Amino acid sequence: MQGTATVPRIRPKPQAYLRVGYACNSRCTFCCAQGGWLTPMRKLEEIKRELDRMVSEMDLESISISGGEPTIHPKILDIVRYARDKGFRNIHMNTHARGFKTPEIVRQYMDAGLNSAMVSIHGHTREIQDGIHRVKGAFDQMIKGVQNIAANGLLYRFFTVICRANMDHLPDIVQFAHERFTGFSSMIFCYPVIKELEGFDKESILIKYSEVKPRIRAVIEKGSEVGVRVLAQLIPPCLLEEHYYLATEFRRPDFFASEPAVTKFASFIEEDRLLLPACQSCEARNFCPRIQYNYVEHYGDMEPEIFTPLQGLEYERIPTDAFTRRNISV
C-alpha cells in the first residue's frame, strides 16, 4: 500500500518524559492517573535529581513535562527553569491549559524556558468537555488558556482521547478548533490506555476498534478539508489504511521516563502487546502500538477482519541501536 506522503527514515534522539506527580484539578473519565488526583506532587529536589540523572546517562535535548496537571505543581516554573539550565533545548508541557489564565502567566512560562504545549480538548461543547473533565467551567477556561497561549506565540497543538462521550463528534472537534483558534500545529486523536481504567466503568468509556476505524478516517478527512493536520496515537496504523503515515508512532522517539515510582528507558511501542497472526506479514509491525491485552480481556472478540497487513510502506523504523546513548542499558 502506498501512502500519500513520504516519511523520511529519521530517528530523533530519545526524549525525556517527566511526570511531576498525579495531582490534578480535573477528573477525566479515562485519565491514566485514576485515583491519584489527590496525591502530593513530587518534591522539587527529587525532580532535580532525576533531571541530573537523565542528562548524565542519555544524549537528550527534548523533555515532555506531564502530570496529573503540571501547572498546579507549586514549583512548576522552577522545574521548567531547571530543565532549561540543564541544557534541554525543547521543553514541552502536557496540560489542560486552564492554568494559563492570563497572558502574563504564559510569558512567565516562556521566560522560564517553555517552548510548546499540548492542550487537552475532548469536546467541542461545554457539555462534552465539562462532562469528560467532570469540572464545571473546564471548557471556557480551556478556551481562555489557549487564547493566551496563541496570543504570546507559544507553539501548541491539541490532544483528544477518543471515548464513548465524544466518539460521534470527533470531526466537530477539528472544526471547532479550526474556527476558534489560530497558530496550532496539529491535533492528535488517541485511543485510551485501558490498563489504567481498572476499577472504572470501561463500558462508558471504551469503543471497539471497528468503531474507531470509520471515525478516525472521518477525522482525517475533516482535517484535510479545513487544513488541520490530524495524527493518530495508540491506534494500529492498518486502521488508518492509506493514511498509515499519520500514526504518531512513526516519528515518536523512545524516551527516558521519570515517574513518581520509577525511572527507566522505555518505548512508545509496547512489545508485550498483542500481534495477530496476520500482523507478522505487515510492514508496520515494528512501529505499531499493537493491540492492548486489556482490550482482548474486555471485548473478547478481536474482529480480526478489520486488521489488514500493510505493504509497500515508504518508511522503516530505525532500531534502538541507532540511538546516540551513553551509559543506559536497553
Proportion of beta-strand residues = 5-15%
For the largest beta-sheet, the strand count, sense and barrel status come to: 9 strands, mixed
The CATH superfamily appears as: Aldolase class I
Remind me, CATH topology?
TIM Barrel
Helix content: 25-40%
Strand count: 9
Low-confidence stretches: 1-9, 318-330
Mean pLDDT reading: 87
The structural domain count equals: 1
What is the tally of helical segments?
Answer: 8
Sequence of secondary-structure elements: EHEHEHEHHEHEHEEEH
Going by CATH, the architecture would be Alpha-Beta Barrel
* Rg measurement, Å: 19 Å
Content-based structural category: alpha/beta
Q: What distance separates the N and C termini? A: 33 Å
Task: Describe the structure concisely for a colleague.
The chain has helices at 44-57, 76-85, 103-112, 126-133, 138-151, 170-180, 209-226, 293-299; strands at residues 15-19, 62-66, 90-95, 116-120, 155-161, 187-190, 230-233, 255-258, 263-266. It is an alpha/beta fold. It has a single domain (15-318), classed as Aldolase class I (TIM Barrel), CATH 3.20.20.70.
Describe this structure in words.
28% of the residues lie in helices and 13% in strands. It is α/β, with parallel strands linked by helices and 330 residues long. It has a single domain (15-318), classed as Aldolase class I (TIM Barrel). The chain has a nine-stranded mixed beta sheet with strand order 7-6-5-4-3-2-1-8-9, covered by helices on one side. Helix 2 links the parallel strand 2 and strand 3.
